[in-house]
Specification:
Length: 547
Amino acid sequence: MVSNKEVRQKMNRISRAFQIFLFTVIPAVPSMSQERDADSLVREADSLRHSYEFVHSVALYRQALEMEEDSLKRIAIEDLKLQGENGANMTEYVYRPKVVARHMCSTDDFFLYYPMEDRSWRQVPNVLDTVAGHPFAKAVYFPEGLEEVYYSAPDENGVRNIWRTELGDSLWSIPALLNEQVTSTGDEVYPLVSADGKSMYFSSNGLYGMGGYDLYVSTWDEETGDWGIPVNMGFPYSSPYDDFLYYDTPDGRYSVFASNRGCPADSINVYVLEYDNMPIHGRVKDMSVLREIMELVPEIPDDDTEGDEVPEMPESAELQRYRTKVNEVRSLRDSIYAYGVALDEIRSKYAATDDFLEKQDLGKEITRREAAIPQMNDSLSKAAAELQSIEMEFLFNGVVIDINKVNEEADRVIVPKNIDYSFVKMNMGDSLVMNIEQPEPEFDYTFMVLPEGRFALDNTLPEGIVYQIQIFSLTRPATIRDIKGLSPVFLHMTPSGRYTYAVGLFRAYSDALSHLNTVRRRGFKGAYIVAFKDGEPINVNTARRQE
């Protein structure tokens, strides 16, 4: 009798073999004339890049550049070649995660399948993101009680950037764009800050990447008080396809992200991985191996090895707290054990290799990992002490618990082959209602005639040649009524203490001249043009010559 697991494994092997046959065994077939134009080379290179054959794709992009004469097309091909080169570079640092689960869903609501608080996503358009229609940016993460929001929204040029606003006493602050390091010429979407506030994960199609939307992490810099340079998260999180919304679950068990690699149009896979706080990255030379890693196929328990289901314990606040702490202790213990096994493997490699550079890299990795062990042991000691404290509290209050059942359930949860992860679709949150602080309107220094005149907020003149139309000089300050609807009117104090007023800021004499009669018709028949250079008055003819 063939188990489901064996069938799935055989199907996966056939699928991978077929992909390898398509992309690596069959050579590129030229046209009947043995010549290919630049466009066909680019299409073939794109196919190779999407199958992770980055080196081969770069070679074809270079051939296309040699053939292409159109300057705009050459720029586009250069960008594609750079993506292929980036992908090749990132094969030096590949992480192999343990995949728990995978679920295909619609790009319209894939974020609702994340293990987050219910109703924590708000539909676009809303008060923060007013523009609908983006193929991927469909909602803003805004759970109840949040006092600092990071979100994606278009700037004045229609490019999506990451913005931030925080709640004050009663109003949300004016949304501010994040620094230039996090801002690119492309779109940034789905920003999410870690629970400790030290890391921000987001997707971008404009930063260093291998095509499509890649996943990035930026770390909070305490010294500068700002977010640092984003780092591409690399394989298997980023790919030549579109990858979004990295999230570590609060219980420290899972890492979740989404990608449309291998999906039909308008669909996306949500991947659940075992959380690894000390991931080991290594070089992958064989692209068929990389393709297998990037498929992220969940481990399926053998049907014949599944034991009886452990009955769930009756829920209560005390038991739930105790069970959570047991899981934490067991998880920390198992993590330390696995960490030690991995460290021993690295030490074995270090002892076996004769390559100087490899030995040097392995030595650094051993030192780095050994330095983390005391902190991990300290975390385990603290968790164990808290667990013992709960047990003493139960003993004092006469609470009776079945330790064997607790341990059985802990085993069922911790052991990877017995993890039974269920995807639950959350509900969309209510329409977003926020009272946002309004920016002070900027003063318009364009020459205008208004129902009510306006004095300039700042009488400082800009550098360079500037013309104005002087309207009058008084021994007292002028009133709004005096300037008869003109705007903007500037005040210049003379050495004798007179109040001299002029209207407009004109960079060309012809512009000032074109508005002179308008000013005179407002009742200022004696108005005339004056000139300034770097804020100092000069002769008009001199200014015109210099202009």
